[in-house]
Write a structure and sequence with these properties.
This protein is of the alpha+beta class and about 80 residues long. About 40% of the residues lie in helices and about 15% in strands. It has a two-stranded antiparallel ribbon. The radius of gyration is 14 Å and the shape is globular.
Length: about 80
């Protein structure tokens, strides 16, 4: 489950738009996972679910090329699973 998402869209004219959101995963985040990324159940208790924001995220990335360090092996598959 994705609990935090940050994306940067760079347009052909060089302008940039950011998207940042935390999500309530609707399951408990184990303490050992919180130890890795620092996000606790309390941190996301009042955040929307990914499903609630999926349309906004889709609109943000629609017609975009996807790039990032290790993104094809981790980030993109995780995003696809959430959608």
């Amino acid at each position: 489950k994705i609990v935090e998402l940050f994306m940067i869209k760079v347009n052909p004219d060089g302008s940039r738009k950011d998207l940042y959101q935390r999500f309530n995963p609707e399951i408990l985040i184990p303490a050992e996972v919180t130890a890795i990324h620092g996000i606790s159940n309390e941190d996301v208790a009042n955040e929307p679910t990914f499903k609630e924001k999926a349309h906004d995220i889709f609109n943000f990335i629609n017609q975009c090329d996807f790039a990032g360090f290790n993104s094809n092996k981790f980030d993109f598959p995780m995003l696809v699973e959430e959608f």
